[in-house]
Sequence to fold (344 residues):
Amino acid sequence: MAESFPMNGGNGVYSYTKNSLLQRNVADNAKLMVREAIIENLDIQTKTFVIVDMGCSVGPNTFFAMQNVVQAIKHKYHSTCSQIEFHVFFNDHVTNDFNVLFESLFSDHQKTYFAAAIPGSFYGRLFPSRSIHVAYSCYALQWLSRVPKGLIDKKNKGRIHYDGASIDVWNAYVDQFEKDMEVFLSARANEMVHGGLIVLVLPSIPSEQHSKIGYRIFTFVESSLIDMVNEGIVEESLVDSFNLPLYFPSDEDMTKVVEKNGCFSIEKLEITCLQCNIDAKSFIIHIRAGFEGIFTKHFGSKITYEIFERTLGKIEEIEAWLETEYYKTTRQLFMVLKCKKLIL
Fold:
């Protein structure tokens, strides 16, 4: 069973609702590509389009994304759009704060679709067979269903991720990613109508750089933890047993898993630069909004609070990393898949 890693709910200072500008920029950067992909590749005749955002979190980014999808379909079928209705499903783990999500949604009186929640992991079936026309997911599939097995035995000591770790640790993450993607694609192959589209946007490291760079923000958090170990605040074994369930795939990774699955054709695959400008303090708070829950589950709230406070103390170092490396090397992967083979 997939583990649950929800973003911070509510409307507090460290909530995802108030700290998801990075993700909003990603969705905005992909807006035109999503629109073009739907207009060029969607060719289905129906009176009701069923759309799902997989990994919707708590808003507001999901609302902008879903409205973009709806508008693109309306443009595609403009001659009959007055007869078309839309049903949008917002999907995330059962622990997601759906109350905040729907409070925000229903405050918008201009919504042009029927809405419903579908709690559950997208690493498994969520919908009846042949019921989905467009599945969308933005910055969600980098989350694995679970931490790869055996990382303690692989001696990922003092690290909380595969960045800078041994090849054995790296391979464990790759294996988990490939297993998860096979489950994801097979489940969608059951649920999608023939010709239905899956639109994916996720953080990526290009294949030519995959073994050279990583997502170094975690090394700053690691150093805070190691300092706390050296000061006797945190047990070393507690740090060694903690690893983040995240993998940032390359374009080759994604092509491999899709071709192996065999149920979808790749209509578009593009690696683009991330266009975002954010200061170091805001960046750390964004990371906290997304990761505080998983840290708290393992370390407890008191230690987790201090982890992020100490990381805030590395502002100058993180600012330098953002300017010299992050904006130059971070990429986002845009992929459009069309369902060509139905699983019976």
Summary: The chain has one domain: 21-339. The longest helix spans residues 167-191. The CA atoms of residues 141 and 202 lie 7 Å apart.
